Amino acid sequence: MKAFQDFQGKAIVLPRDHVDTDQIIPARYLDVTSSSGLGKYLFSNWLYLKTGAENPEFILNQAESIGAEILVAGENFGCGSSREHAPWAIKDWGIRVVVSCSFADIFYNNCIKNGILPVEVSKAFYQELRQYSWLELSVSLKDQSISLSNGSCHNFAIDAFAKHCLQEGKDQLDFIFEYSDRISKFEEARLWN
């Protein structure tokens, strides 16, 4: 995983509530075990018209969305089935931060495990963000804050272990492997006692 560093970036606003994982990436794309290449299927039911052509009305198809690293999403984002392919597709598209006023628990945790920072904000702050289609946001994991260029700022909570893993660019297995020597010594001692 890439270490999460504080940054300022372009945000896309998708003001839809209860976007489930099948809307994030439809089940027909779940036959792969690699996250590579899934970004092209992100929100594919909205990305394309029934004819197969790109939907010019959908925000990800608009030129202003190119290079965006932050997604501002509606309430209860990532609900539905617990597919890890949803954060895989989001990350492969280029999103590093997802902001919402509420997340489905499994989706939230899958984001962290895949190097995406899920930022839960108040409904009032979310209402301020959803006034835009695109905006610049500054995100500080160190200070646990997110702010607009107009000075409006919101602090967010995150589990200390999740924060550490994101800052170090490590998933849970990477963290455990740091202690493999100690684990081996413990197991050896346990076997002989």
SSE run: EHHEHEHEHEEEHHH
How many separate domains?
1
Strand content: 15-25%
CATH domain class = Alpha Beta
CATH architecture call: Alpha-Beta Barrel
Given the structure, what is the number of helices?
A: 8
Cα gyration radius (Å): 18 Å
Strand order of the largest sheet: 4-3-2-1-5-6-7
Global morphology: globular
User: Which residues sit in consecutive blocks of at least 5 with pLDDT less than 50?
Assistant: none
N-to-C span? 38 Å
| Fraction in helix | 25-40%
CATH homology group: Aconitase, domain 4
The total of beta strands comes to 7
Structural class: alpha/beta
Mean pLDDT: 90
Biggest sheet layout: 7 strands, mixed
CATH overall fold name: Aconitase, domain 4
Report on the structure:
The relative contact order is 0.18. A seven-stranded mixed β-sheet has the order 4-3-2-1-5-6-7. The protein has eight helices and seven strands. It has one domain: Aconitase, domain 4. The chain is α/β, with parallel strands linked by helices and 193 residues long. α3 links the parallel β2 and β3.
Summarize the SSE layout with pairings.
Elements: E1 7-14, H1 21-24, H2 44-47, E2 70-73, H3 85-93, E3 97-100, H4 105-113, E4 117-120, H5 123-129, E5 134-140, E6 145-148, E7 153-155, H6 160-168, H7 172-177, H8 180-191
Parallel strand pairs: 1-2, 2-3, 3-4
Antiparallel strand pairs: 1-5, 5-6, 6-7
